Amino acid sequence: xxxLFIVFxxxxxxxxxxxxxxxxxxxxxxxxxxxxxxxxTHQSTEFGKIIDEYLSGxxxxxxxxxPEIPSLLYALDRYQFKKELESANCIVCxxxxxxxxxxxxxxxRGRARKExxxxxxxxxxxxxxxxHVFLLDIPVELAYQRIAREKxxxxxxxxxxxMENVRAVYLMLAKRYKWxxxxxxxxxxxxxxxxxxxxxxxxxxxx
Length: 207
Prior knowledge:
nucleotide biosynthesis, alpha/beta
């Protein structure tokens, strides 16, 4: 059976976690060795705990911490699961190295951003490459309406201008690397969870 490695990306509040879990529930019936990953791993691993320190602002603000530092932490968080990512025949990831590209490159401009993206791709080149990357695109204002009801904001989420930059970088990367962009809106109407799931299944020829 051909390997299936699906990654869900998007700014916080885009609905990627919901879609990733829904798809995994469907695929694990077909692929008995299907695995699900959510990156970063937060409090479940040592690297995840360090990342939480960064996200809480204890290492400094967005402008104080060079993007290379969190990028290395996030890379280490993924590399600890390299064997599992290589051996599984079906993988669904709620974020992968594409998140690093968008969130950290959003802190830079011009040539510095391009050079950083090249460096970061090189950093993660020994990890398995996804077969499909879905970018769930949503206006930042709508995303904030969603996440404000659910949790305390981290240093990324609390800076709206930064999140606008992240969204813009995500869309630029999606165009460059031919990711599948799923829009959260149909005109001004917010799509339902089921509508978005249906679009994803059609791309995967499962709908």
